[in-house]
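Holo prediction. Input below; ligand is zinc ion.
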Amino acid sequence: MLILGIDTSCDDTSAGVMRDGREVLANVVHSQIALHHRHGGVVPELASREHLKNLIPVVEEALKTAGVDFHDLDALAVTQGPGLVGSLLVGLYYAKALALALKIPLIAVNHLEAHLLSIFLEPEVPPFPYVALTVSGGHTQLYHVRGYGDYTLLGQTVDDAAGEAFDKVAKIFGLGYPGGRVIEGLARSGDARAIRFPRAWMGKDSLNFSFSGLKTAVLLQHRRWIETPEAERTLSLADLAAAFQEAVVDVLVQKTLAAVERTGVSAAAVAGGVACNGHLRARMSATAKEEKGIAVFYPRPAYCTDNGAMIALTGYRRFLKGETAGLDVDARSKFPMGDLMGVRPMNCMDREIRVR
Ligand code: KG4
Ligand code: ZN
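Structure of the complex:
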């Protein structure tokens, strides 16, 4: 079964082709980073226009790479949400038109579930049940994953996402957008112990996250740093970056391991753009092995950030459950995973919700 997956949820235009939910035949991503860089963040209006310009070439390139034709496709999977509505609409309406023209099923995919399942694009996968941490520019969530489509949300951020914190700190430092990779690079030459930034633990048993206080602490410290004459500075900008990254990584590692402890699972996986971070991977794997004797699984960086292959894979899994979308399906800027399969969203702060 050949599925084309399309994602235009934010600032990447991507298309992936998968065979039988196992083999990635193509994964093409057109990044808009260069465009948004000078604005210090994604400009929604510009993002939609770029998707309009790039979607057809990206899809054509994906099909060419996969060595298939439009008429070989058996189904079309597309991100329905969450994301920027103007951006989502470009992918969704293109997919609707294509599905109608080719007379093949359309599958609406939740972008969060796609990040969660992206680990299954890899040859080595965690055994069910396991704990998954999804950390991207828009989300920071911990799930108990029992099977495809069978998840419990254990905790999530109450304010900024981890990737958003990286992006905001990079902006404060004047390093442009997106921030994750730049901050990680800068942190390599810094001393993480030169200064200690606060960690928000959110109560003894909470698996929720908060990164807005940390961001403010970095902002205030950076202001002081700027105001201090260069000759009198005891910290470098790299020290600030390393100490910030350490604070984020500390919380992500400790909360993930607390989730492992609570659920009694024997594996964990980390996905989403922030999972590209080498320091996070190293600390997470070492601590999980040392303290819990468990392995942690990561998708390769190209599958951590937004990509069409993870949409095709998730579409395949949804298709197997008989879930296809009508042509009246609409984009959803907010799309909690609790909304999958008609489950009503609940106030899930500090509470487990079951998603089937
Ligand atoms: O998953 P993704 O491509 O898009 C969303 O769905 O948000 O994630 C992008 C986020 C950005 O916030 C970016 O700064 C962050 O992932 N990111 C990183 C790294 N690479 C990307 N954060 C920390 N370290 C990295 N190496
Ligand atoms: Zn994403």
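The pocket of KG4 (ligand 1) is lined by residues 10, 136-138, 163-164, 166-167, 178-181, 184, 272-274, 276-277, 305-306 (CB under 6 Å). That is the main takeaway for now.
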